[in-house]
Amino acid sequence: MWCDQELRAQFTRLNEVLTSQSWFKVYEVGSGVYAIAEPYNFQEIISYLIIGSEKALLFDTGMGLSSIASVVKELTRLPIIVLNSHTHYDHIGGNFEFDEVLAMNMDYTQNRADNGMPHTVVQHEVTTEAICLDHLPVADTAGYHINPFTISSHIQDGSQIDIGGRNLKVIAVPGHTPDAIALLDEVNGYLWTGDTFYEAPIWLFDPETNLAVYQQSIKKLGKLAGQLTSVFPAHNTPVASPKRLTELVIAFDQVITGKKEPLNSEESDHVSDDALLFEFEHFSFMIRKDLLIMKNPLNYTTFKKNWEANIGDREELIPTPLEAMKEFEIREHTRQFLAESGLPRSASPFLSFGPYFDKNGVIELAVDEVYPRLDADPKRYILLGSDGAGNPIVLDTFEKDAIFWLDHEDSFSPQPMNSSIEALATFLLIYRSFIQRILSENGGDAVIDANFTDLQFGELKLELTNVDAQALDEETFWYDQLEGLLVNREFYRKENGSG
Ligand SMILES: [Zn+2]
Ligand SMILES: [Zn+2]
């Protein structure tokens, strides 16, 4: 079936370089730049060979279905340095054929290098729907797997790789994977984007994908667009206009802010049930649903579903009866949220939520009943709960239902917390995931010892920022919480003598 596919139209306009290889198609796409394409498998992977005067850099090594070392040998006699755009299996298949392999210094990357990928994970790549076996010199479909490889040295964001008369700069672009990089040849204005950008459905689907981080990364690339002449992506077609990077930033912003509608299931019949496809003129995004919903405040149904999917001790949600709210003028979405979902009885960081009952067992939402010293219009605040220091957390019906904490040491003066009940609830969910993540990745004492990495912290901050940016302004509740995490970490690091 895949054998009937025509090559993409762009290939006919490129300078083909003939080799003896039947699996790879090679094109000269820039000065000293060869695209090594694998158009006979549905991934349509493209690796690149970049020629210097002393060495050549091979950016990705493809599927590992046929020897990429053999085709590289026909193109240059220079020593080869391998560097991967990221370590998804479709880009590292030939790594094992080379001695010099540069990589990011990350557990994620090291795991891929140590383990490769077994046949069971990649066998779908060699079914007749996925591949045209006629082009493979040796079609060992039953044995196909990804070989482990050895990393010879590490690179990081900003590393310069000198291959003789040509400098290649590494730009970290985490998001699609934590170890994703782009490669920049400043002199020629070339940028290799890996899977961060290509002109096809861009996959933001895997467990290691992080949309907030991806957004930061593409913004970095978008800023480079003006100084570029060519963009070289890792799938489908090898040459793209630098203008696409600007379009990419704008398009992704529309997706994240909910301004762009996904295609419905009939329009995108090959899309997995877990994914949404957002289509733009030159590319599209295939995004796993549960990654996407975290980027805006969640509505009550989605929050409830996500919170209850993973509930801990004393974390049950407590709805507020409609009857108790009738005294207050609140917005319909707020009323619905409180009545249908409510907030958890307790949540990190040291928060607890009501509702509160007066001595007759009646729900008390008016904050002045519980905090008699508070002098405010009784119709103004709805009491939601309190923080670890005993300050009330309230919903301010005079301020569009925004959330404040009232500083009991300063005459209950209102201090900003979140812009809505949905934003507060979504923050609780993101914060809880952060705690669960550091416990599972850094060990059972990670919370007590404030043991988290800059990456984990950065991702927490980005996710919160995407949901409710104002809530992270200086001297807000959440700003102080995040600062507190860093201060604690510093303290425990000194305590443990690790600097
Ligand atoms: Zn990938
Ligand atoms: Zn890929």
Helix content: 25-40%
Shape: elongated
CATH topology name of the largest domain, in short, is Metallo-beta-lactamase, Chain A
Give the number of domains. 2
Percent strand equals: 15-25%
Number of helices: 14
Hetero groups: zinc ion
Describe this structure in words.
This protein has 499 residues and is α+β, with helices and mostly antiparallel strands. Helix content is 28%, strand content 22%. The chain has 14 helices and 26 strands. A hairpin with a 4-residue loop joins strand 4 and strand 5. Helix 5 runs antiparallel to helix 6 and helix 12 packs antiparallel against helix 13. One zinc ion binds next to loops.
Quick tags:
499 residues, alpha+beta, Metallo-beta-lactamase, Chain A, 28% helix, elongated
